[in-house]
Prior knowledge:
By secondary structure, this protein is of the alpha/beta class. It contains 14 helices and eleven strands.
Amino acid sequence: xxxxxxxxxxxxxxxxxxxxxxxxxxxxxxxxxxxxxxxxxxxxxxxxxxxxxxxxxxxxxxxxxxxxxxxxxxxxxxxxxxxxxxxxxxxxxxxxxxxxxxxxxxxxxxxxxxxxxxxxxxxxxxxxxxxxxxxxxxxxxxxxxxxxxxxxxxxxxxxxxxxxxxxxxxxxxxxxxxxxxxxxxxxxxxxxxxxxxxxxxxxxxxxxxxxxxxxxxxxxxxxxxxxxxxxxxxxxxxxxxxxxxxxxxxxxxxxxxxxxxxxxxxxxxxxxxxxxxxxxxxxxxxxxxxxxxxxxxxxxxxxxxxxxxxxxxxxxxxxxxx
Length: 322
C-alpha cells in the first residue's frame, strides 16, 4: 500500500467554518463506513442528535475508506470511523485528526462450507479469498498462518481476485471461492442467504491464541478533528458519553438494534442483523487508555508490511487526550 504526504493539506490550515474558529459548532458531522462501524453507532443514527443540548448529528455513510479519507482531507467531518491501518496512514500523512475511541475489536471470520476445517493448520493446501493485499484482513491472516507454522502463498494460497468486500462476499456465497476472510455484517448476511455456509474460524480468537492475549485486535478506530476538538470540548465529551451508552445498548438489546440496522439500510435482513451483533465485538475503549495495546498491534502490522501503517508506527500524539 502506497502512502503520500499531502503537503497541500498541511498548508491549508482549515478552520471550522461553522464557528469561525470560535465558540461551539451548531452540529456534529460523522463519517462512517457502512459495515461494523455503522452497526456500532446505529442507535445514535436513530436519535440524530446529542442527548444534551439538542445538537443535531449528521451521519455521512460511505462504502470505502478512501471516501471517508476524502471527507477528512477537506475537514468535512468532525469524527471519522476508519480501519486502524488507514487511521495510522492518514495521521502519518499529516491529517489533522487524532484517535479518540477504539470501538471494534475484531469482526473478521473465515467463512466457507468445509466442515473439515477446525484449526488453522487445516488450511494447508487450501485457497483463501481476500479483498486486498496488505490490508488488515490480509496481514492478520498472514500473521496467524505464520505463527501457526504455515507459510502464506506456499502452504496456503491467498487469492486476491476480489477488489472489495462486497465482491468477495458474493463469491463466497456463490461458491466461486470456497473460503474467504470476511467481516461482519457481511458474514451473517451471506450465511443467512446460503445455509451451506458457516464460520470456519474466528480470526479474533485465533489472533488471541497466537499472541497469548497480549496484543488486542484493534480493528477500527474513531478519529476526531483537532480543530473541532479544540473548539468544542463540551460537545466532544457529550458525543463520547452518548457513544459509550449507544454501544452498551446495542450489546444488551440485539433485537432492537437489529431493527435499526435494517431501518438504516446497513444490511437488509433482520435475522442476519441480530446475528451479527455479538460477532462484531463492540466495546467502547478510550483510545489513549489502550495506547500500549494499539501500539503493539501496529508493531505487528509494521513488521509484516511497513506500508500498512504509513511507513512508521504513529507517535504518542496520535492519541487524543482530554
